[in-house]
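Possible race condition, two jobs.
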Amino acid sequence: MNESIARAGVLGTGCYLPERVLNNRELAERFGCSEEWILSRTGIKERRFAEPGTGSSDLGIIAANRALEAASVKAREIDLIICATYSPDMAFPSNACIIQESIGAKPAAAFDLQAACSGFVYALVTAAQYVIAGNMRYGLVVAAEINSNIVDPMDQKVTPLF
């Protein structure tokens, strides 16, 4: 294999989940079905709910800082931030820009990528392509969602999924 071929890899990961848990027992009681019925159709045992007033960028900031620490990369070294989200805090500025400001990655290019379930994969591949092309050295990919802000908790068809 040619050793001069550019490569990209994952240097570190970080995550954050809100503390409030909504499990299938609560949903089963709410919707008059069994926990097993929900699990068999969704594969999900529990969901996390952010506190009111929390934005998806708030979750992303914590996860981003943890990923940078795990990778031993300083925020000022980041060249690119992509935030995969379909539940951004607002249309403008993007969640990626909010994360960029908060973590101190001022020189980095930053944008959101909205592709729902496949968003993280698209963001990861996009960041890798920038690195492989030689345009960027370090990219930060953040996936952050808060579905509780956009889902009706009484909607029996959607709530068990999100």
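Job #2 (started ~2 s after job #1):
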Amino acid sequence: MHRWEHYQVDELPGVLLFLALALAWYAWRRVREAREQLALRREAEARLAELLAENRRLSLSHVEVQEAERKQLARELHDELGQHLNAIKIDAVALRDWTSHQPADVHGAALAVVAGANHVQDVLRDMLRRLRPAGLDELGLSAALEHLTDNWRARNPSTRLTLDIE
């Protein structure tokens, strides 16, 4: 029996070769899997970017549709309701003036109609201002926002409000 036979040194090159091949195969497999995962991740990121762009486009489209609807509603309220309300107020003022020499209850009713018309006009004006700020189309967003903040400050003097527009 040889002195090194106990350690089986003669099989060491085969074992080392097998181990080296196994490690090389394992490393190759891990690199391939990493590349596949990286490719999948890049595809997912590209898809996510597409979806985010589509989401932004849809959000912008939604805001544009909403603004067009608000503009149309404000125009209809102003043109239709405002005109009829103005006619009612003119008739009520004429009735008030005509009944100034009539009994107090008739004149009071005329005054009540004028006051009601004034109130409805104020409410309508406020609704129109909230729906579509005056000057938004003519002066732009920053002027409209400044106008709104000035109105807010006037209605709520205890509230401190600042507006910074770049």
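Helices lie at 12-98, 104-131, 136-139, 141-155.
Logs attached separately.
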